[in-house]
Write a structure and sequence with these properties.
Layout: E1 16-19, H1 31-37, E2 41-47, H2 49-59, E3 69-73, H3 76-79, H4 85-99, E4 105-110, H5 112-116, H6 121-132, E5 137-142, H7 152-163, E6 166-167, E7 172-176, H8 181-193, E8 199-202, E9 212-213, E10 217-221, H9 227-235, E11 239-240, H10 248-262, H11 267-292, E12 296-299, H12 306-315, E13 320-326, H13 331-339, E14 346-351, H14 353-363, E15 367-370, H15 372-380, E16 385-387, H16 388-393, H17 402-424
Helix pairs in contact: 7-9, 10-11, 11-17
The protein binds iron/sulfur cluster (SF4).
Iron/sulfur cluster binds near residues 26 and 143.
Length: about 425
């Protein structure tokens, strides 16, 4: 299968590893997109008022809209060990499920406080699952912000879902990662045209799709932040398909080609399926690349999308990479994208934010991709920024979204160019 991604060598380059203060959201943030995707699921966070505020303000959903997430708030008596939090939680779950018969999957989501006081959510989930079977399945995962970043919430959720799947030797393709519905439909259409119809997508929209895993499950990740889910699939005997991530025309082609190789899709079929959308994507990217080409970019570690996006921006849009930071580098997942980066690029893993701020001010990039907390201070210092979290919420995968993805980076540059012209005038 064609592969435009010639290795340039960054995969072997030394990685700057730093541990210090880091500026990221916690895994609870993932609930905002997961609850929209998993339509019969409810996410019950076992946490503090801070956790409730984070969810409420980030999701922007009013209580009367009956959202499919809530927080069981740990009061001071729980935190001080004066009340039995397990009994309280069981009562909360009972009230919730009697009010919401539409809920078929209940996720008990751990937080920093529930982990600090060591509430055993795994045992709770097992006990509640037995109590409410077969109508409701209760699963637990951690969304705690202790030493994690916000996309790890989805990873922890999927890992728990995979752990719960029945074993089967059915031959199938599994695609891991929550994608917007329209993007997922495009992907499934391309796979169907290639002759691959038996595709399991995780997370499942509803729990009534009978999902299984086993030695004949061939899986590929659509999101680069699914390290724990990847490891769990391997542990369950499934076979990984290794590829660059489907960002841009080259990334999408290489991702599809890896699947086509595994499923013995004839080259002529593959070429016919990708020809038109690939050409459309290349043409659309070339237009946006006029703004991006030659401009420098610096990535702070935030979403774990950084390495594949850097590959797309450098190799398909002509941007100049300075530093590409990622909270964690899972080489089995991002190795192909890493190999496609030029070897002079600084690759950093983890964060010591003060030292990284010194580096960004030293190199004064045209564009800095960072978390919300850093964006305003950096803008005040004259740097143009792009919020990393916006990339997780936007449709950016596959051919039809490739130019939109490039535009997300072009817009702040065009805005700062206009402001500069205004200053001169
Ligand atoms: S899980 Fe931790 S980091 Fe996240 S909102 Fe709750 S207390 Fe804050």
């Amino acid at each position: 299968m064609p592969n435009d991604l010639a290795p340039l060598g960054c995969g072997q380059a030394p990685v700057l590893k730093q541990r210090g203060q880091h500026e990221v959201f916690c895994g609870l943030t993932s609930i905002i997109w997961l609850h929209r995707k998993m339509q019969d699921a409810f996410f019950l966070v076992v946490g503090s008022r801070t956790c409730a505020h984070l969810l409420q303000s980030a999701a922007g959903v009013m209580i009367f809209a009956e959202p499919r997430f809530a927080t069981a708030i740990l009061e001071e008596t729980d935190l001080a060990g004066m009340a039995d939090a397990h009994v309280e939680l069981e009562r909360n779950v009972s009230e919730l499920l009697s009010r919401r018969p539409d809920v078929k999957r209940l996720f008990l989501v751990g937080s920093c406080p529930s982990e600090v006081i060591k509430i055993d959510l795994a045992t709770m989930a097992k006990k509640l699952s037995e109590k409410y079977a077969p109508h409701v399945n209760v699963i637990n995962f951690s969304g705690s912000g202790i030493e994690t970043t916000f996309t790890q919430g989805e990873d922890a959720c999927l890992e728990a879902v995979i752990r719960d799947l029945e074993t089967s030797d059915k031959t199938q393709l599994a695609v891991l990662g929550a994608l917007p519905d329209v993007v997922q439909d495009q992907m499934l259409r391309l796979l169907t045209q290639m002759g691959i119809a038996d595709v399991m997508v995780l997370p499942q929209v509803t729990s009534d799709t009978h999902s299984v895993v086993g030695p004949n499950t061939h899986f590929i990740c659509a999101q680069p932040f699914l390290g724990a889910s990847y490891d769990e699939m391997v542990r369950r005997g499934a076979q990984p398909i290794s590829a660059p991530f489907p960002f841009g025309a080259q990334g999408t082609t290489a991702w599809l080609a890896a699947i086509a190789d595994r499923f013995d899709v004839p080259q002529s079929t593959f070429d016919a399926v990708i020809a038109a959308p690939k050409a459309r994507a290349e043409q659309a990217i070339a237009k946006v690349a006029e703004t991006l080409s030659g401009r420098s970019i610096f990535f702070f570690p935030d979403s774990q999308l950084e390495i594949p996006l850097a590959r797309f921006l450098a190799n398909e849009c002509g941007m100049v990479l300075t530093e590409v930071g990622s909270p964690y580098i899972h080489r089995a997942l991002v190795g192909h994208d890493l190999d496609a980066l030029a070897d002079h690029v600084v690759i950093s893993e983890g964060q010591d934010v003060d030292k990284q701020l010194d580096r960004v001010f030293d190199c004064k990039p045209d564009l800095t991709v960072c978390g919300l907390g850093l964006a305003n201070p950096l803008e005040a210092e004259g740097l143009s920024t792009k919020w990393a979290i916006e990339l997780v919420f936007s449709p950016i995968h596959f051919y039809e979204q490739a130019a939109d993805l490039a535009s997300l980076f072009a817009r702040p540059l065009m805005r700062s160019d206009l402001l500069r012209v205004g200053d001169v005038a």
